[in-house]
Structures are given as structure tokens and as C-alpha cells.
Amino acid sequence: MVRKLVSYIKVTIRDIFLICFTCAFTVFLTVFRPGAVSRLIDEGFILQSYSAVLLWTCFICILSVGDYVSQMIQISVFTKLENLFTENMYQASLEKIMKIPLNQVQNRNVAELLNTVENDISRMTILVNRNTIIYFDCLFQIVGGIAGVFLLDYRMAFAVLFIIPIKQLLVVFMAKRKKELTRNYIELWRTFSTWFGNQIGGILEIKLWNLYEKKTGEMKETYREIPHVNWKIQIWDGLEDISGQLIGLALEVVVYVGCGYLACEGKMSVGNILAFLTYTTYVSGPLSCLTRIPYLWADVKPSLERYMTLMETEEEKLAGDEEIKKKQGIYLKMEKVAFGYSEEKTILENIDLSVCRGEKIAVIGDNGAGKTTLISLLLGLDVPSKGEISMGGNSMETMGLSEWRKKFALVSQRPYLFQGTLKDNVDLEGVHTEQEIETIAEHYGLEFVLDKIENGLHYQIENNGTNLSGGEQQKITFLRALMKDAEIVILDEATSNCDVTSRKVLRQVVLDDSFEKTVIIISHYREDVSGVDCVYEIKNRSLIKIKYDDF
């Protein structure tokens, strides 16, 4: 997991050089600054030499300024790394979500999925944000601090280093428990986010049925365990802090008693005592910080595991055989295709369908019969449990989903519109000018779609077209489908929200002899399938060719 995580961190040679340089300067500062303070006290204050005071004060100031510059360099480097890391993680998440099977995305509430990705990335960013500087500085401060205490008195150095590791044992123990609590906390939040998102999606029903009190009660029940687990996490955090303070107190006692004895025996000067205390701080403070790494890892690991589970989800096979792509025709065929979400819930079985180039067919059937499932299979959104779907004699798998889906344009019963202008939603690839869009709309007699909407192509559409009627949304996606250079157009209840006049115009467009694309119409309306070449009905999980008069 760590290796995969590191792949998202983009570090340049310049960044590495700056980090190494500033860390080396930290060691230099750690070793020489306490010594300078010791000389300032012994040679300046105690011997009452004002020139020594000025000399060592200037030296300390120079070291301090260098430290400030070093800190700013580190902040600049790590802030850049954090921003790039966060961007790369979100990009990788989006790319993965776009490539995994649609049903695996639809099975997860949108709010819950967004919350999960956002929460996980936020936690993992801890590993590369500005606070990471502290761990680099701590490591090199420890090196300089250990060198300093051994130079002053090796016996006191061993006494100090004997006490410090005790805290590490306490942290390891606490980190194990913290990891369990954090994993539980993340799961509780996932459940709550899913529930909360569902309530937002069903806000209309909540209002109409006056479910305010009921939903408030459900919210309290769903949220009930979260504060309790969070309380436990905070308690463990507090215990960890207190244990650190106790170890720090024990260290202070050892230093005061030991250094006091050496001072009373005349074996250590006042300046050396202060330097030793500073060196001890350089060891105990940074080491105390480093011992929190297991604790920090316990907080990050559950998010990393969940994120990597998402990133390891099997993707759709988008690529295909380049040679076969060049040979294919536009002959669509389903042979003995079956599909079901489980063995007990079979939706379609033994489906045979052959569609010739330019042919216009209709598929009818009762609600729940499997019409939308049939479309999902044709688009490669669902994978048949049996049988094969091919085009021009080449299977979907051989062609690859990316090339396969280029051949299709879909207008669904519940179209999705992105937040942006009308032009952005008609021309999703952004390859056409406004003039080209207007020309195509006029060619198909659909200029009324643009004329009846305020500001035309510049109209700002809100998320999922909430500021448009259902009919307007369908007409926009109908024009969007015509903008795509696709050879097969699928209309899945595509005019169900349109008025009678609009439905007639849209139907005439795809059924006109001049419209050379292959058309598949899914509809409950008899007039929508009037004029097609043949009609199929899904009944008892089978696809049967019928006469138009039988519909």
C-alpha cells in the first residue's frame, strides 16, 4: 500500500536537494547553537566579558536567521508536494470511478461515495503535508542532540537514552487500540453518510408525508454510536499526551539530579548544564514526536486500506484489438444472451437479436420486463452471464468497450445534465463551435430546442438540470445524441416527458428515411414505434418479434 501511495507523490531533484540541504542545516544548528549559548554564559555573563556577549549573541542570531530561512524553504517544498499529492489522488479516484462497472458505482450513494473519497484523501494527506517537516527536523535534531550530550557527559547521555524508549512501548500499545477505534469510526461515518444522502434524495417524499419527526428519530439512532466512538478516540489521545508528559517529567528529574551532582562536584559549568538541557530537549522532544508515528499511522491506515480497495476494483475492458477495429461493420447481434443479478433473479435468458445497418426497431414490454437491462447489455454497462454480443462479427470484448461505445448514442428517460452552459451539455467533447451546433439543430429541425430556452447555448444549467423541465432536459439530450458521431441511436423512453408536438417532431427525426443511423426505440407509446421496421417484445424473460398490429 505504501509503495502505491508513494507513486502519487511527485518529487523533483530540486525538491530532494532542498530537503536534504535544510535537514543537514538542522543537524548543524542542533550541534552548534547550544554550544554557542554555553559559551555566551560562561565566557560572557559569568566572566563579565561584554565583547564575548556581543560575539556569541551575533553568532546565535545568524544561526536563528538561517533556521527561519530553512523553515520557509521546507514549508514551500512540502506545501507544493501536498497540493500535487491531493490533486493526483483525486484524479486517480475519478479515473478509477469512471472505469469501474456502472453497477458498482450506482450501488453506492453519491453523497456516501464522495464523503468516503474526500475523507480518505484528507487523512492520507497527513503523510505529506507541512507537518511532515516536523518529522524530518526531529530525525536530524535527534542526531545532533545525541552527539551533543555524549560530548558533554557520556554517563548522563546513557541515563537519558535509557528513559526515552519507555514512551515508545506505550505508544505502540495505544496505537493498536487507536487503529481499531479509527476503523470503527470510519465505518460508522460511511453508514451515516449513506443514510443522510438517501434522505436528501427523498426530500420531496419527506415533505409530502410529513416525516420530519420520524426522520429526526432515525437520524439520532443512526448517529448515536459516532459520538461514543469519537469520545474513546479522544480519551486515548489524552492518555497518550499524559503518558508523554510523565515520561518528560521523569527525564527532567534525572537531568536535574545528575547535572546538579556534577555541578556541585565542579565537573560541569553552568553553561554546560544549560547546553546539556538543550541537547536533552533536542533528543526527548523530537523522539517524543517520532514515537507518535505509529499512532499517526493507526489513524491513516484504515483510510489507506479503504482507498486502495477502491483503486483495486476491477475495471471495464476499454481497450480492444486494433486490427479488428478497422475491419468491423455495423451489424449488431445478440446470441443466446442471458443476464441476472443472481441465480434466483434471472431477468433475461436466451435473447437472440439481429439488427442490420440503418434498421429501425422498437422494443416494448411491461415495467420491469428487462427493457432497460437489454440496453445496459448492449452498451456494455452490464455483462451477460451467458451468450455473446457482437458487432460486425467482432465481440464486445474483442473490440474493447471504449471503441464499442463510440458506436452508440443514448437518450434515456432520466437524462443527466452537467452544471455548465447549454453548449457544454450539448457538445460534451467540446469540439464544435456554436455555429456548428446551430447548423446541426437546424438540419434536423430542432432549432426550437435552442430558441425556447433563454439565452440559448449560453444558458447556465444547474446541477442535473434542476432549473429545466423534464421535457427540456430530454430535448437537450436528444440534440446531444445527434451531435455524437455514433452509428446507433438508442431512445429509452426518450420522449416520455415531452409534449405531444415535441414527441412527434423528435420521432420524425429518427424515423425519417434520410436519417441513416441505426435506431433502437424503447417505448410504452404505440405512436412512438409507428413506422419502425420491426417490433420486439420482452415477455417472460424472452425477446419475441411481433407484428405492429399486435401492440
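Next protein, fold it too.
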Amino acid sequence: MHKTFKVAYYSILLLMFTIPFACERNETNKDISGILEAWKTTDVTQTAVCSRIYKDSLYIRKQADTSKDCQASYMDFLGTLNCLRDYAKKNPSSRLDIRNTIYEIYGKLLYKSDKIDYLEAEGSEALQKAASLGDQHLLAELYRTMALLVREEPLRAAIYESKSINILQKSKLEDEYYSPERFAEMAEVFFEAESYRDAIKYGTLFYEKRTDSVSVAEVMRIMNILGTSYMETNKWDSCSVILETLADYPLNEVDAENEELQKYKQVAAGKLGLVFVKWQQYSKAKEALDNLMEISLKDRDTANIIYSYLGLAQVHFGQKDAKKALVELKQARRYAKTKHFGNLQKKVYDEIARAFELQNQEDSASAIIKKDRQIEEYLQNNRQSIEHLQAKTELELHQIQTSIDTVRKDKAARVYWIWAILVIVILMGIIILLIRGRKRFKARIHRRIIRQHEQQQRKIAATELDSTLLRVKETGLATEEEWLAFRTNFSRAYPNFFQNLDKALGKKATPAYEKVATLIYLGMDNAQIGKLLGIDKDSVSRSKRRIKADMGCQDLQATISAM
């Protein structure tokens, strides 16, 4: 009966210890009231309120975590997540599921505890649910969360955030969630991807919403992007306004000495040459383009070199000199091959074909047109890839749902194997307990017998000590032989006393210290101690003071009695 109880007891302990790890669960007694209150917010400030809650409950907690690898705050996050999931099970709601997903993404992304692909799949499933709810602000928040997930891919992140901004702009809330600096970053990303309309949109938002804290260099950089984007989309009036503003941008005395800012102004003045070409002001255009060429060659700015040659070729076309135009275009083609400037390459080849046609060189024109078509095909593929990215959320929903199902099956399989291993471990534990139980029981009985024997010996020693004490009170402890005999009997009755005395003193006790301490322990006063040791009361008092000082205690009697 005793063995069965012992086995059951240890089995329950083992089960209680391993179940939390098997189920990947954590403590579920977290206070989630603050998060739930944020989630219940129904007006348009819900996203902002929840964002603050996530930062307070995740980012700030991680920053304050001093444990190794931030395990304490990570386990705290998992515990909170489990509480939120339990709450959602008791209160089924698509909105709660979506909120749980957002909280999970924020936490696991912060602690890098899950693969991005899996988190992105979870986020895409939440996007489906949010779309079916018709909650535009929740949808905007999800797009922002997805942008955070793919921040290592700037173009994808910008596309997700553009979806969020489109929703927020309808309620005029974009300023609450996006800074001018972020608009500038998005403009630059889209400009690099040659998505010029998006570059214009976010460059304009930056320019309109910029604050005094934004640097002059940042403003001029975005103005340059805007001017070039307007030029690429053939909006020449807007291009002219931006470039003229940039060329005449007022600078204070300090900024006027900044070479980078001066260069922005010079490049803008040079690019105005392309505007002058469109307006058929060829002399002004040539002067501006020559300046742009000089600056660009000096800085090895390939894109602006190509623009310069293209502009000069346009000047020659305007002056009915296709031969000189072709010379300029061949130079442009040389630079266009240096890097893959898709749109600029196409422009160069378009103009070369035009030059050959004006000179009646049909074969050369055909060859160039063929090359031009190849570039057009490349650009088309590039545009399609961007469009694919922009539509990625919608196009991949089915595949993502399949991935989610696969991941869930894998997790279920892992849990199954964990439980199987758990059962095996418990069975092995039970077998080990059964095998070793008898030996442990015998050892325990043996130790109990030894303890009982020691207790009996101590009782006998205490009785002997009492007899010895009566004799000592008559004869005293003046001689070494009498003390050693008494000390031996005392040690048998109180085996740990002298060891504890040494610890309290912090050193080995002298025979004099041992004699005084022993008699104090037996409850004798100064007169009795002095009589037994053959010394006067003052000597006893001095000995007590020395012992008390060495022990560093306030009450010598209480300290020694506790040994």
C-alpha cells in the first residue's frame, strides 16, 4: 500500500511539472483588463489606444527586463497571450481573434521567437477576417502590422503601409499614425522602384506635412525626387514649379556653405533644361544641361548624366540636327548600360531609333526598335512584379490559408508526440520508482533506527552529564583532567555545541572561552562559574565581555543558549 501511494505521488508531481512544457502554456493569471479595455474601444481612436497598450505591455517591459536573454518578459508575454486566448474562447468573436493575432505578431516579432513566414500567414488570415467585418480602421491597423513584419523588404512594407494610409485618409487620420519622415521614406522607396505616381503621392504628403524639425537636406532631397517623378510622368508644369522652387531655395548663412545643399540647387537648375526643351527654349536648355552634365560627371551621377545627354539630344532634334543628336544618344546609351535604369534605357533607345529614322537608316532603326522592345518587355515584367507585390495580400490568401492549415497540423502532430513522450517518461519513472522503492524504504528505516539510537545515546549522556555536574560542583574544574572529563561528557550530550561556538566566534575557541561558554549554557551565574573555575567574579565578567565582543552580539546568554 505504501509503495502504491509513493508511485502515484511522484507520478502526479512529474505530470504537473511536464504538462506546462508539453502544451507550450504559461501562467494564466495575468491581469489583461487594460488590454481588454483598449480592445473594447469602438471609435476611430481604437488603433492608437491599442498601439499604446502594446508598447506599454511589450516594448517597455522588455527594456526593463534584466534577465538572461529577456526570458522573464518573454514568458510574461506568453502568459498574457494565453490569457487573451482563453478570454477569446469564452467570448467567441472574429474581432477578438484578430486582436489576439496582432498582439501575438507584435510579441513574437519583438522576441524573434517565430518564423516571419508563419507570422505573415497568421496576419493574412486576420486580414481576411477584418475585411469580412467591414472595420476599416482595424484593417488599416493590420496593414501597418504586416508592414512591420516585412520591414526587411522596404518595397513590400511601403505597399502595405500605402494600403493603410489610403484607409486612414478617408477619415483624415493619417497624421496620427504616420510622420512626415515616414512619408519621405516611402517616397524614396517608390522612386527607387520607378513607381513614380506613388513617389509623387508620398513626396507631396511629406512636403505638405513637414514640420520645422525636418532638416533642410531632407526637404531638398524629397523635392528632387518630386521634380524627377513629375518629369517621368510628363507633368511638366508641376515639374517646372518644383525644380524652380528647389533651384531658388533660400538658405541661411550656415546652410549656404553646405556643399550637399548647394548641389541640390545646382542639379535642380540643370534639370530645368529638360523643361526648357519641352518649351522649345533651346539656348536656355543647352546652358542648363551643360551645367548639369559638368556636375554629374564630377559626381559620377549616372542617372543625371543620362538625363543630360537625353536633354542635349532633344536640343539637337529641335534644331533639326539628328546627326549630333545621335552622337549625344550614343553617349547616353553607354551610360545607360552601366546600371539597369529601365525607364531611362527605354527613353534612350526610343530617341536613337528616332534619330536613325530621321537619317533614313531603316536597318539601324529596326535593330534599335528590337532592342527597345526587349527593354519594354523588361519594364513590363518589372511593372508586373510591382503590381504583384501590391496585390500580394489578396492574391496569396488561398495559399496562405493552406500554409496555416499545414502549420496547425504540424503543431498538432508535435503536441501528439510530446504527449507520447510524456507518457513514456511517466511510465519509465513509475518503473524506476518501483525498482528503487524498496531500497529507499530500507534506507529510510535504517536512518530512522540510527536517529533513535543517537537520541537514546544523548539521553544517556545527559544523565551522565547531570551526575558529573553534581560532582564537579563539589570538586570544581580547576585541573585540566577534570575539565577534559567534563568536556567529554558535555560533548556527548550536546554534540554540536563546540562547533557552533567556533562559528559564532569566527575562530577556534580557547579552552578558557569553552569553559565559560559551557557553564553559561548550563545556566550558571558569575559566582557559580567563578567558584567552579577557581577565579573571582570580576574575571568571569571580563571573560564574558571578551566573548561577547568576539561574537558581536547584544545578549550573550541568549546567543549561547541558542547553540
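About the second fold: The first helix runs from residue 2 to 22.
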